[in-house]
Amino acid sequence: MRIAVEGIQGAWPGDNPYQCDQGYNCPPPTITLDNYSPIKDRYIDVGAGGPKSYTFTVAAAAPWVSLSATRGSVSPSSPETRVLAGVKDWNSVPAGTTSTKITLVSKASGERDQTVVVTFTVTKNAVSGGFKGAILSYSRGSAFSSLPPGFVEGTGVVSIEPVHATRKTEAEGTSWTEIINYGRTLSAVTPWPHSDATFAPGSGPAL
């Protein structure tokens, strides 16, 4: 059995230079998640470390961990399978950063059982009392919101739809219009009307 977790190029067990900065004596693999992440789970790939077929089980030490599968198999015709780990209910997770264990055990004919433990670290954030911004009450097709909603970091990213811009400027009759349902979420915006007008740097329409 070989385990590869999301965000790391190495695989466990074995000394692999991609497992950690030192490239040797690396700790068990770790996956992380926070409650503001737009992607609600992390993956663990279970693959073949040799030609033998084997079965495996997956178990989490904490009751709030969700697993897409608790058992599976790997064979020459199906050399890899993916298990997703997430959080069932954030209300049951302690505030701040918490770590638990996900244990994978493989069984193959004529071989000793093999165990790999994955550390699952989750961070339960809370918006501070002084956080500025409106509750997200924007409705599709309405004008640009006068007070943008508050956006909170998740997984190291702050994602803001352009229609929620805090400030916009127009120039020489060119303004901004919303394109509903365009893009990954909510909508997009574009200068309108489209024209061949040119502007000096810093003088054109802007968001």
Give structural notes.
- The chain is an all-beta fold and 207 residues long.
- The protein has 2 domains: 2-124, Sandwich (Immunoglobulin-like), CATH 2.60.40; 133-207, no CATH class.
- 0% of the residues lie in helices and 35% in strands.
- The protein has a 5-stranded mixed sheet with strand order 2-9-8-4-6, with no helix packed on it. The protein has a 4-stranded antiparallel sheet with strand order 1-3-7-5, with no helix packed on it.
- A hairpin with a 6-residue loop joins strand 10 and strand 11.
- The radius of gyration is 24 Å and the shape is elongated.
List the helices and strands and how they pair.
Blueprint: E1 2-5, E2 30-34, E3 41-47, E4 54-60, E5 65-67, E6 71-74, E7 80-87, E8 96-107, E9 114-124, E10 175-180, E11 187-192
Kindly give the count of domains: 2
Largest sheet: number of strands, sense, barrel closure: 5 strands, mixed
CATH fold descriptor of the largest domain: Immunoglobulin-like
Order of helices and strands: EEEEEEEEEEE
Number of helices: 0
Percentage of β-strand residues: 35-45%
What is the helix fraction of residues, given as a range?
under 10%
Summed over residues and divided by their number, the pLDDT gives a mean of 86
